[in-house]
Amino acid sequence: MPTFNLKINNENHTVEADADTPVLWVLRDVLGYVGTKFGCGIGQCGACTIHLDGSAARACVTPLSAVENRSVTTIEGLATPAGAALVSAWEAEQVPQCGYCQSGQIMQAATLLEQNAQPSESDIVSHMDGHLCRCMAYPRIKKAIVVASQAMTGEVSGE
User: Fold this and answer.
1) 4 phi and psi, to 5 degrees?
2) Which long-range contacts link 129-135 to residues 24+ away (Cβ below 8 Å)?
3) Structural contact between residues 70 and 92, judged by C-beta atoms closer than 8 angstroms
4) What pLDDT, in 10s, does the model give residues 65-122?
5) How much is the average pLDDT of 7-16?
6) Shortest CA distance to 107 belongs to which of 47, 67, 43, 42?
7) Which of 25, 62, 77, 153 has the fewest Cβ atoms within 10 angstroms?
8) In this structure, how many other beta carbons lie within 10 angstroms of the beta carbon of residue 68?
9) What is the pLDDT of residues 30-79, one digit of tens each?
10) For residue 15, which phi and psi values (nearest 5 degrees)?
11) Which H or E run includes 150?
């Protein structure tokens, strides 16, 4: 079985697995990073979103061979100002209901705020498109992203 050198959350790991193994299963079953969730298995729901060299990627359809010698960040390693602001806003706005999709939602939102600290509502909707929430918490997700943006930029809410 081939060996792969991985950098997960700024830590180096060596794993043995088939090259086409989805990185989701290596993260969860081999390395114990269980914050990344299995949702649909076909890259459509977003529950498995990770950052691959700073960009959002779906771990359920990303083969292990595609992440060797690249930087992978999971929800456990999201130690950025955007990540901290989002986690705080998620709690303040009471976003999670069942909570299953939330790690993927936060990972996707973090890439938005890292690119655009003051997104418009249409920017948020467009960037988050394709992330599914069975509980339909979309208005609270959108509000939490706005609150996180305001915290990052020092903007005071008009409410």
Assistant:
1) -125, 140
2) 130/44, 130/46, 131/45, 131/46, 131/49, 131/101, 131/104, 131/105, 132/39, 132/44, 132/45, 132/46, 132/47, 132/101, 133/101, 133/105, 134/98, 134/100, 134/101, 135/97, 135/98
3) no
4) 999 999 999 999 999 999 999 999 999 999 988 989 999 999 999 999 999 999 999 9
5) 97
6) 47
7) 153
8) 17
9) 999 999 999 999 999 999 999 999 999 999 999 999 999 999 999 999 99
10) -130, 150
11) helix 138-153
* Residue that is written with structure tokens 């700073």 in the block: 54
Here the contacts of 48-57 (C-beta below 8 Å, separation 24 or greater) are: 48/24, 48/104, 49/103, 49/104, 49/105, 49/107, 49/108, 49/131, 50/23, 50/74, 50/107, 51/78, 51/107, 51/110, 51/111, 54/111, 54/114, 55/111, 56/107, 56/108, 56/111
CA distance 72 to 59: 10
